[in-house]
């Protein structure tokens, strides 16, 4: 069976490694990025303990590699901008091992290394044809504009992310759902004087900062900015240093040292802020009568509130790999993954309550210490069907 993987980000790389030595399967992978191109190279990512559990059980060498490239994510606290503690969790109370925090480029490096030998880089999927046997045959364009036709595949896997070309070609472009929140990302290269280490969140009204230190001495700062309406674009005025500072500094109290430090860094590096909007899109697992499989963001882009985008992409790649190795297909993968993904998507949105219109950041954060939220976190971090 010939399997073609379009996109070696998180899900595509994990699946490719899972299938690399499977008897009877021939794997080829394609990615539009050249070897040395590193998208989002600087910014940080926290990956949940559930992805680490999946890697530990299915790909122990990859587990070791991502642990070596990262710092442990062991703690999650939520403070008000003036320093009042609202929530403080040791992840080991609800998980079997810590998560990780690392740079996106380091995660990609660790996941891509074992599949480099059978990945063709600098080739972007453009169109689909059928070969004489009725198999799907991708048409890819290289960086010089030339077209490549690597032949027909029994199964094509979309690991090409949120704006998946394979999903667009076979099932249409999914309609994104926006939630009225803008997101900023910033890498602080030198965070030697940063007054915290592990994963924290700080609320000033519904505006929220999230930050943690990264390997190599840097820190990652993410901001959540309420927008006037769910579909609203980000107003230019919100992007100024003065507006950013006013968003996160409490008006009638003294900011805690962590918030003061982050606001100072945002002011200094205002030109480096990367902007996006909180969004998700409907789940779709397959197309073309089981000849196309969607994984990761191509199947289910989700809101990043619980750090589950790349985390679920890892789960997807591992469970899909286990199923394909034993001769199963898209239906069986969907049966194991889709209810799990819907739970994670719903819980991620539920956990965003404190940032959404009408949300109460103080009471909403305190409520996360309750049995209901912690029980769902335990399910999130430990219960992976199909492992
Ligand atoms: C602001 C923000 C913060 C986030 N924070 C977190 C977090 O803290 N933790 C977390 O777990 N997740 C987080 N995520 C989500 C996470 O980044 C994604 O969910 C994850 O990268 C999805 O993995 P993937 O393998 O599906 O796709 P990607 O990692 O996006 O990989 C897609 C791959 O496909 C390739 N490709 C694209 N188009 C083509 C084409 N036409 N032909 C060939 N190749 C192609 C790309 O080059 C890339 O290598 C965040 C996302 C955002 C936007």
Automatic annotation (TrEMBL):
Keywords, comma-separated and alphabetical: Monooxygenase, Oxidoreductase
Matches recorded under InterPro entries: FAD-bd, FAD-dep_Monooxygenase_BioMet, FAD/NAD-bd_sf
Transmembrane segments: none
Gene3D superfamilies noted in UniProt: FAD/NAD(P)-binding domain
Pfam families the UniProt entry points to: FAD_binding_3
Name of protein: FAD-binding domain-containing protein
Residue intervals of the FAD-binding domain: 289-319
PANTHER family membership: MONOOXYGENASE, PUTATIVE (AFU_ORTHOLOGUE AFUA_6G14510)-RELATED
Source domain of life: Bacteria
